[in-house]
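Handoff note, outgoing to incoming analyst
You'll be picking up this chain. Sequence as last confirmed:
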Amino acid sequence: MANNNQAVVEIAQTASKFSSSIVLQADNKYIDVKSILGLFTTLVNTQSYELHVHGPDADAAKAAVSEVFAKHGLNVKVVAE
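Most recent structure output, in case you need it:
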């Protein structure tokens, strides 16, 4: 299992570099990926995630955030809007 604290901080820091809206769907909850607190409460209990990204730098944001999830062994599916 990934070290969630490190994963959370790194995901939030990476997401914060982008101006796009980056939202994680976990079960039926939607969490702003730039919110460390939101991520902490979510990454603990959920096994699969969907990433919704909207904005001017969405492609770069999707790639960067997905990479951090993968690095920490978290399974995320980027949803094409």
